[in-house]
Amino acid sequence: MSSHSHHHQERTPMTAVEFIEPIAHEAGVAQATELFAKTYGGQPEGVWAAPGRVNLIGEHTDYNAGLCLPIALPHRTFIALSPREDTKVRVVSDVAPDKVAEADLDGLEARGVDGWSAYPTGVAWALREAGFDKVKGFDAAFVSCVPLGSGLSSSAAMTCSTALALDDVYGLGYGDSDAGRVTLINAAIKSENEMAGASTGGLDQNASMRCTAGHALLLDCRPELTPLENVSQQEFDLDKYGLELLVVDTQAPHQLNDGQYAQRRATCEEAAKILGVANLRVAADGIAKADDPFQALKETLDALPDETMKKRVRHVVTEIERVRSFVRAFAQGDIQAAGRLFNASHDSLAADYEVTVPELDIAVDVARKNGAYGARMTGGGFGGSIIALVDKGRSHEVAQKIADEFEHQGFHAPRALAAYAAPSASREA
Ligand code: ADP
Ligand code: MG
Fold this sequence. Notes:
The chain has 2 domains: 18-235 and 423-428, Ribosomal Protein S5, domain 2, CATH 3.30.230.10; 239-419, Alpha-Beta Plaits (2-Layer Sandwich), CATH 3.30.70.890. Helix 3 packs across helix 4 (178-195). It is α+β, with helices and mostly antiparallel strands. It is 41% helix and 19% strand. The protein has a 6-stranded mixed beta sheet with strand order 6-5-7-4-2-14, sandwiched between helices. Strands 1-13-10-12-11 form a 5-stranded mixed beta sheet. The N and C termini lie far apart (46 Å). The structure holds adenosine-5'-diphosphate and magnesium ion. The site of magnesium ion (MG) has 4 residues, from helix 3. One of its GO terms (biological process) is galactose metabolic process.
């Protein structure tokens, strides 16, 4: 395309933006079963599925013992699985349906598996490491409509669907209750962190395993809380307010963000140490409860040695408060206020946390200029997706405006999804 033709915006039909549809229950079961049968022969013992997620607000707060507010997407990863008598693992995915990856759990160590199969293999490994000796090998086939690497947690959809399937076929008994699922979540997190080598703070796996339909999951990441204390279901009914939640996957080219994420975490930990608190949540709560929170924030920032650290801490502290404010605003039906909080969150992630890229900033900007109540990046940043709160029926139009601007800018074509609060992982067949 040419980036110097400026008269085409209104007249010339541009590329229609693609909307990624969720795979329906029947299709997911049929496709996963078929891939299983084609790959290994025979029928799987069952089919399970786990969703991707979008975080409504509360970004980079999970590893600071803060608050976040995800919903599960209707987009799910299906897994057809059978247990094995031995410790072998074989996995295949519709991403590359002719390639079967193999591993052996016997003697397996952290980082012992390369490529995507580290995610599911690592779940069985983590369960065994946690003492569940009856977990053995398995054959599995994955079919997914969760975009990979777009900040919508395809990795958690994969590890959580695997954890639920293994819980079921090996009779561990943790999948049936919310509190029990935390054991499976821990195995999914351990797999991502220690087998796949991808840092993750727990938001994604909790969302995939604990969200309920029609609700956002208010997740409190303070480590001292028990599973019964650390979540509450907040009604998130878009229809009630005549709204839609548009997700746009910017498809921004992959950035080398691993070091950046680790840096952000390290800066936060160092700041907490300097402030003499266990984590930045303690500092945030102290500020929130102060007679003059603005003054208290200023004093906290004044105690920090450098400008970058002040900015990172200001994001975390204000973002935790924005989660509380968003929950209140949405419950009261104050959609304007909810939208402003989306905007403030994004602006803080752009200016203070410095995790946005031009694709994210421009997508958010176009959404705002086209009538969104608010828009923000979601997920870790450095690429990935944005969300925008728009009036019912307007998602396609706003997504198209973003796609048009991306074409104009010479960016990759974005893709869109219609999000709503869907249920968590479950057995499908
Ligand atoms: P996100 O979780 O936001 O999608 P991540 O980088 O955490 O991004 O995880 C993406 C990785 O997870 C992929 O690169 C791949 O290794 C693995 N993955 C997730 N879903 C699938 C799938 N359906 N098939 C194969 N690999 C997958
Ligand atoms: Mg992930």
